[in-house]
Amino acid sequence: QVQLVESGGGEVQAGGSLRLSCAASGSIFSINVMGWYREAPGKQREMVATSGGRTHYADSVKGRFTISRDNTNNTVHLEMNNLKPEDTAVYYCAAFGLVFRPPGGRPYDFWGQGTQVTVSS
Q1: Can you tell me the distance from the alpha carbon of 17 to that of 78, in angstroms, rounded to the nearest whole number?
Q2: Are strands 89-100 and 75-80 parallel, antiparallel or unpaired?
Q3: What pLDDT, in 10s, does the model give residues 86-97?
Q4: CB proximity list for 56: less than 8 A, separation 6 or greater
């Protein structure tokens, strides 16, 4: 099986920074896309940033958040700067199109458990 372990959440004041990290563990051959989603109270889960062939960002975080990925170690990070209270949410790591070793099997999607990010005004 695969585990996505997130770290780096916490509480910060508006204008501050946080760095989220996610490591996928298991017998992994490849992952098509890794990314971050968030879910605020009373709202649907939304894409924040993804990294596959290209990177994609939600309009609300462009210029403030940066996603980076290490394919060798199956890790993905999210550098969050100039945080705003509206960034408060549970942030989830996602791995889409994960293929196990040995290659040749079908791809799977996995989600992490989530890490809380709270931005106070």
Answers
A1: 10
A2: unpaired
A3: 999 999 999 999
A4: 35, 47, 49, 50
Give the model's pLDDT for residue 108: 96
At residue 1, the pLDDT reads: 84
Give me the mean pLDDT over the 62-77 stretch.
97
What pLDDT, in 10s, does the model give residues 2-52? 999 999 999 999 999 999 999 999 999 999 999 999 999 999 999 999 999
Pairing state between β 10-13 and 115-120: parallel
Q: Is the separation of the CB atoms in 103 and 31 below 8 Å? A: no
Query: d(Cα 119, Cα 111) in Å, to the nearest integer?
Result: 23
Amino acid at 98: L
Nearest to 79 by CA among 19, 14, 2: 19
- For the record, the structure tokens of 46 come out as 């939304």
SS3 of 40-76: the string is CCCCCCEEEEEECCCEEECHHHCCCEEEEEECCCCEE
